[in-house]
Amino acid sequence: MLKTGTDLLVCLEAPPAPPGAVEWLTEHRARIRDLALRHGGVLVRGLRLDDRATAVAAVGRVIGEPVVERAGFAPRDTYGQGVYSSSHWPADQPMCMHHELSYAPTAPRLMAFACVTPPAAGGATALADGRAVLRDLPQELVERFERHGWRLTRHFNPFVGITWQDAFGTGDRAEVDRYCAEHGIETRWDADGALHTAQTRPAVVRDPQTGERCWFNQIAFLNEWTMAPDVREFLTAEFGPEGLPFNTACGDGTPLDRATVDLVNEVYDTHTVREPWRRGDLLVVDNLRTAHSREPYRGDREIIVGLGEPFRP
After folding, report:
1. Which residues form the TauD/TfdA-like domain (predicted)?
2. Model pTM?
3. Which residues lie closer than 8 Å to 185 by C-beta, 6 or more apart?
4. CATH of the domain at 45
């Protein structure tokens, strides 16, 4: 039954003694997806996702047409078409609010997260309403990003972050150049084989069903000022300001100052909804309307992630 929740996140309880999780999800799939698209997120509790294989099958059943990740920011384990481990990101560092693959030519409309092993502490996958964030950001800032979009620069090297071979799924430089040219990504190769890329994407996107405008980007998460200060200082000293593994700016190339990035993160914080993970939880999210984050944690944590229903921002 539907339990009381927030406007953004509603909760469904599976029956006390359900059939297999995948069979139950097959029966209730349409309702779960509808709730996610109407509210932004739906949390299903009480499923028996006792092992990784069951969680992978459950996620695959919910997401619909899979989205294959290209040019990710951290390594993942691949379990099937559009089904992955969560990103291998340091447990003590947060992954700030963002919309998955908002920098890519094709992004998932739906995401699903299945909890195989909950962390000992922390580690919530928190949510924030992109419409509410857009409404509460300063009008001048929104107009600037709506007019120019946002610019993402990346520097792939073998010492920090993911390699370009892993990001693009190939060791062929010509294939990378072809992919980037087809998708509006600028490339530059250093003499040592390091790759630099730059791309400009929309920062505000309309929901094709409702026409509502949503703040849809990774401007704050991938900016240098969101990095831990000691990490930023080390990377800048080691590789120079242009050699950071990633950074963001306004689409016209104007750098972002710390105050602007902090302001975006503060507005996200105002609208953040979090629910601690329990073993067997399944969280389904409308990735267009709803940003998500991953909070620091202690202990083991295994979350299976699914990306589905591709759309072009």
Report:
1. 24-303
2. 0.93
3. 179, 197, 198, 199
4. 3.60.130.10
